[in-house]
Amino acid sequence: MPVLVASDLDRTLIYSAAALALTMPDARAPRLLCVEVHESRPLSYMTETAAGLLTDLGDAAVFVPTTTRTRKQYLRINLPGPAPTYAICANGGHLLVDGVSDPDWHARVTARLADECAPLAEIQEYLARTADPLWLRKQRVAEDLFAYLVVERELLPEEWVKELAAWAENLGWTVSLQGRKIYAVPKPLTKSAAVREIARRTGADLTLAAGDSLLDADLLLVADQGWRPGHGELADASWTAPAITALPERGVLAGERILREFLRVSRPSHRS
What Å distances lie between residue 81 and 58, 60, 89, 98, 100, CA to CA? Predict the structure, then answer.
């Protein structure tokens, strides 16, 4: 029976230059591999050691990249190792099979959102009306499923985010602040639902997961075993659960540690 490994990407396995958190002397910094280029510029990295571990993991388990990114944003990433058969994009709104969205899955998700949540247009209107141009840089809609803002974090009032979260809660939406982005996502739009579907299709008898943000909590809770890095929303909130290991590593070295743990638990010698 296969092992299913579902991992968040940004600030879990891959890191922007600003998120690397390299605290050692420059001469001792790990060699980095660029895994994403955007507008002809390098954007995301992992250590070369992590790249080797991910290649090994692709041979040992069913590796499923699991991201809030849109399909277009996800397809910019060039991960080492075998191309994943499955990937989860738009926080579970799209289940990709060999790079193509499964239309039946997407139809099921959109029908559920229509039944259980306030419409996206209502969220967009509130964001446009209340966000201050002083700190707002961009307002975006992802895959017609959820909305996010790009902000100047140092100018963003904490109270505004709390008010948004309280307002959205009553409409069946959740709010997550990750770096310079504020996400407003319908509560039924979850990574965990898509992971359960892939587990059903593959017959996996063990599911492993990792993630750093509030939007990863449901993913971690659905796994048999999970890990979170020492940075991010979950670490800031000291969030944990019985099958979750809180790692001390922060930044790109946390990504390396997470892949070591995935590989250790996936290997037959560990499971026998």
Answer: 6, 11, 19, 15, 19
Q: Please give the Cα distance from 1 to 20 (Å, whole number).
A: 35
User: Closest Cα to residue 244, out of 215, 203, 196, 211?
Assistant: 211
Residue 21 near residue 255 (C-beta atoms within 8 A): no
Structure tokens at 248: 């001390």
Give every strand in the sheet of 136-142, ordered side by side.
136-142, 146-151, 181-186, 173-178
pLDDT tens, residue by residue, 70-109: 999 999 999 999 999 999 999 999 999 999 999 999 999 9
pLDDT in tens, 168-178: 999 999 999 98
Q: Would you state the structure tokens that stand for residue 177, as one six-digit string?
A: 């602040």
Residue type at position 172 = G
Q: Where are the extended beta strands (E) located within the chain?
A: 3-7, 32-38, 41-47, 62-65, 86-89, 94-97, 100-101, 136-142, 146-151, 173-178, 181-186, 206-210, 225-228, 244-246
Beta bridge partners of 37: 42
Residue that is written with structure tokens 């009032």 in the block: 157
What residues form DSSP beta bridges with 62?
4
Please state the pTM of the whole predicted model: 0.94
